[in-house]
Design brief:
binds copper (II) ion, single chain, 5-stranded mixed β-barrel, alpha+beta
């Protein structure tokens, strides 16, 4: 009887653990919508050439074309999301160049790890 109880306890813990892990997975892939400026993360974080805004547009275009990691700075919060196309979404830096230094709304799934935020976008709308 004691053996069965121990087995049940282990099984229950395991099920609980699996439940928690899958719940976290779902939380990490939350669908969100972010409105803000498309930046190149290098210039934004280093403040190079002003780092953002209309006066940085030419630089942002060159940087994103050149392959530097693009991102979006959320208007409301100042939060920076690194941008990457969701599987099945046409994109990459080439698709983002036209939005460099522009205010847009990006829809996609956010993944957070160790303080970094990645937004896997499926749609971008210019404001
Ligand atoms: Cu730049």
């Amino acid at each position: 009887m004691k053996g069965i109880n121990l087995f049940s306890a282990v099984l229950l813990s395991l099920l609980l653990f699996v439940g928690i892990v899958s719940a976290q997975d779902k939380k990490e892939m939350k669908e969100i919508s972010v409105t803000g400026e498309i930046i190149d993360t290098k210039c934004y974080l280093t403040g190079m050439m002003g780092g953002r805004g209309p006066e940085h547009e030419d630089c942002a275009i060159a940087c994103i074309k050149g392959g530097l990691p693009p991102g979006i700075v959320e208007d409301k919060t100042g939060t920076v999301y690194i941008l990457a196309p969701e599987k099945g979404t046409k994109g990459g830096n080439e698709a983002l160049v036209q939005y460099a230094a522009k205010i847009v709304t990006v829809k996609g799934k956010v993944i957070e790890k160790g303080g970094s935020k990645l937004l896997l976008y499926s749609a971008i709308t210019a404001k």
